[in-house]
Amino acid sequence: MTETAEMVAVPPLEGGVDQERQYVAALYRRLDELREEKEAQLAKVRSAGAVGTMQNISERDAFATLYEDRLAQLNAVDDRLVFGRLDLDSGETRYIGRIGLTSEARQRLMLDWRAPEAGVFYQATAFDRQGVRRRRHLMLKNRQVQGLEDEVLDASVLDEDVENHGDGALLAALKARRTGQMGDIVATIQAEQDRIIRADRSGVLVVQGGPGTGKTAVALHRAAYLLYAHRERLKSAGVLIVGPNSTFMSYIERVLPSLGETGVVMSSLADLYPGVRGVEEPDARVAEIKGRLDWVSIIAAAVDHRQRSIPAPRDIVIEGTSVTVTPKMIRRGIERARATGKAYNEARATFVKVMVREIAEKLERILEKRSQGNEADRTYLAEDVRTSHEVRVLLNLCWLPRTPQNLVEDLFSKPNYLADVAPQLSASERELLQRSPGSAFTTADVPLLDEAAELLGELDETAGREEARRKASREKDLENAQKAVENAAPQLEEMGIEGFLDAEAVAAMNSESGPAMSAAERATLDRAWTYGHIVVDEAQELSPMQWHVLFRRCPLKSVTAVGDTAQGSSPSASPQWRQAFEPFVDDDRLRIEELTVNYRTPGRIVGLAERVAEANGLQTTALRTVREGDCSPEVSEVSEKKLLESVVEAVSAEHDRIGEGLVATVVPNRLITRVRERLTEKFGSRVGRGAGSLAQDVLAMTADEAKGLEFDAVVVAEPAELIEQAGGKVGPLYVALTRSTRALRVVSSQPLPDGF
Predict the structure, then answer these.
(1) Listing from the earlier edge strand, what are the strands of the sheet with 687-688?
(2) Which one of 271, 467, 562, 714 has the largest count of C-beta atoms within 10 Å of its C-beta?
(3) What are 493-502's contacts with CB under 8 Å, separation 24+?
(4) What's the DSSP call for residue 399?
(5) What is the 3-state secondary structure (H, E, C) of 532-569?
(6) pLDDT in tens, 597-612
(7) Count of CA atoms in the C-beta half-sphere (13 A) of 644
(8) Is the dihedral of CA 452, 455, 461, 466 positive or negative?
(9) What distance in Å separates the CA atoms of residue 751 and residue 573, rounded to the nearest whole number?
(10) How do residues 175-227 score in pLDDT, each as one tens digit?
């Protein structure tokens, strides 16, 4: 790499911390220059105002969109901007960072970690050097290099006495205190992880891995990599990341911005239907029933059930004149509406038109007969029929307008309705599903709402016309935006600006709907949005109906699913991946990769967890651990009377032992409130919910809430009850035992499960 006016020279092979600090400081100066440049460019574009032709306005908005996206990216990568360096056989030196940086003269200063040339940073080994002489890890804090670690892959370099020793980037990251927010692993991605991250986008890729193998981190880094490698295809369609609950989503929310990606849609399973946040299903049996694919046909039958004729002719009075509506007229109207192939509510608009016209024609014949051929103007009759109260009541009786919410609520609050449309359910199952009108929708209801919305369509009768108008307007905006992008591209290339300019985003800025929205923001508000790729974490927990909804939102079936079948705890959890995906993808479109190294959990704790799992009939992935750990798990048997006191004492003891860090208590559902109260008495405001934080470092949660999270120390209470409340499944206990990065205690007043 050649020295530039902005940059100091690349440190020589024997360069140490001081030399690296100079180079890294220069990289940060370049980052700051780019920020200032983009801020100035954005201010200039905004000051221009909406003047000129539509194409000129589109070009202005194209630049504004690009500058805003670039600024968001530059602001998000400030922490640990650069983390690696490669010294190659060719004499070239490559710095690896969160994004790519070039000098003003277009000379490359730092590679984006996702670039093909950066792949050897993660893949090279002493047995397969791939042209790498030395791999250097840079440990940064507050923009300054704190330490180095060199991995010498070419033995001849050892003779030059240039090796710098450190604690090891990976081990240093593993030993770091947990903060309640997941950190990225971009500096420490291992070869087996990198291979999965860079795997082909097509089809369904399942990443199976036991606790602590980095499944979630791999999934998030894969999302960032795919957005980089397939930006043109994925930028406008977007990537959806789905997790088990809101706590988990909060835990991972900072990872992608730190990797230079800010436009991904993130959603828990409870939030997949816009406008509804599902609550936990209180009865696992009900959750299992609602998770079955049977609901595709049940919802379809429930929709059709509301299209019905009348049993006998009915007289209705319109402005003093009685008109007889026959069952044949109703059936004819329903058949003509169904023939349009439109969704329920949209087809209903056709039904109403047909019936209003037929009733008006019949009314006109009656009036003509009564007036003995008087040819008076009667064009007003159609409006009289349309606004007639009796007509509206009759047409609603035959074809009631429906929303997804009232359809699903009726199913579970009206036993006869459910019995009519769900004969495949037993009487006892239908009874379990009954609940009071107005009950909150649950997470298990969300796929049913989505299925109902798909079949019902828009409720407003004018929605179809309005949508057509919006579509035409959008196509015109896109045409202008595409021209703007094409015109702007040469200027952007000359300026050395990285990034992809998205015509979709530019068109959105010119829409009549308000301020500009990214593809991610538009997708969040649009239930019918289809994504270019979907990433699903804790995928073993999803029900068939949840998968049905997700595959509808990704017609290309480009999915990354990460999970561990051994950790399954939901009533719909599948013991085999191929069984879970069989209804949705062909076998040749399904690939299964396995992660086998536990980076998080010390070997001593993993050993206990695996013994307990095996003793209770749970098959787990055999894991290798990178460290044994300093503390052996401690198991205490106490009386029921002293259980809560012992749990609090165990939490206190772990804090004393580990010093700073997060200590979590994982308890059965029935104890969660009492344990939180007792911990609050002891630790006050330090007790938190969710994943925790530096200020709230004492946590109490259920096994489901702990899924996917990690803590410095964990106290597990009543392990036998964790199995019992899951209907005999050992997965929740296995989850609880494997959350710790340093220490584990088990407190029980009941007989311990086998394996302890």
Answers:
(1) 634-637, 740-748, 711-717, 663-666, 698-701, 687-688
(2) 714
(3) 496/102, 496/104, 496/106, 497/66, 497/70, 498/70, 498/99, 498/100, 498/102, 499/66, 499/69, 499/70, 499/73, 500/231, 500/232, 500/235, 501/62, 501/65, 501/66, 502/65, 502/235, 502/236
(4) B
(5) CEEEECCHHHCCHHHHHHHHHCCCCCCEEEEECHHHCC
(6) 988 899 999 999 999 9
(7) 14
(8) positive
(9) 27
(10) 666 666 677 677 778 888 999 999 999 999 999 999 999 999 999 999 999 99
Q: What is the pTM of this model?
A: 0.81
How does residue 115 score in pLDDT terms, banded at 50, 70 and 90?
very high
* Residue type at 674 in one-letter notation: R
Cβ 565 vs Cβ 208: under 8 Å? yes
- Residues 519 and 502: their CA atoms lie apart, in Å, by 9
**Using 50, 70 and 90 to split pLDDT, how confident is the model at 374?**
low
Both tokens of 564, joined, read: 């561990």
CB 421 within 8 A of CB 298: yes
Segment (H or E) for 637:
strand 634-637
Q: Is the Cα torsion angle 632, 633, 639, 641 positive or negative in sign? A: positive
Instruction: Identify the three-state secondary structure at position 183.
Output: coil
Predicted pLDDT of residue 186:
77
- The phi, psi pair for 319, rounded to 5°, reads 50, 45
User: pLDDT digits over 464-516, tens only?
Assistant: 444 545 555 555 555 655 555 555 555 544 444 444 445 555 555 444 444 45
403-412, 581-590, 666-675, 692-701: least confident range: 692-701
Residue reference for tokens 């835990």: 251
Asked whether the beta carbons of 749 and 670 are under 8 A apart, the reply is no
| Length of the chain, in residues | 756
Strand, helix or coil for residue 58: helix
pLDDT of residue 464: 47
Q: Residue 59: what pLDDT? A: 67
Q: Which residue has the tokens 């009314």?
A: 363
Can you read off the two tokens belonging to residue 38?
A: 């983009």
Which structure tokens are listed for 143?
Answer: 């923009």
Sole residue written with tokens 């599948």 = 574
Pairwise CA distance, residues 466 & 181, whole Å: 44
Q: Are strands 265-268 and 144-152 parallel, antiparallel or unpaired?
A: unpaired
pLDDT at 674 over 60: yes
Residue 95, CA atoms < 13 Å, CB-side half-sphere: 26
Record the tokens describing residue 171, joined without a space.
């081990």
Cα–Cα distance measured from residue 699 to residue 678, given in angstroms and rounded to the nearest whole number: 12
Angle, helix 389-398 to helix 327-338, in steps of 10 degrees: 60
Residue owning tokens 């470092």: 697
Helix ranges, 371-516 (H)? 381-387, 389-398, 404-413, 415-421, 427-433, 446-456, 463-495, 503-509
Distance of CA 404 to the CA centre of its chain: 23
Q: Are 166 and 140 in contact (CB under 8 A)?
A: no
The first and second tokens of residue 666, run together, are 């994982």
Both structure tokens of 107: 């000379």
Beta bridge partners of 137: 84, 149
Three-state secondary-structure class, residue 443: helix
Identify the pLDDT of residue 485: 55
Lowest mean pLDDT among 395-399, 548-552, 573-577: 573-577
Alpha carbon separation from 588 to 1, 131, 592 (Å, rounded): 45, 35, 11
Contact 302, 421 (CB under 8 A): yes
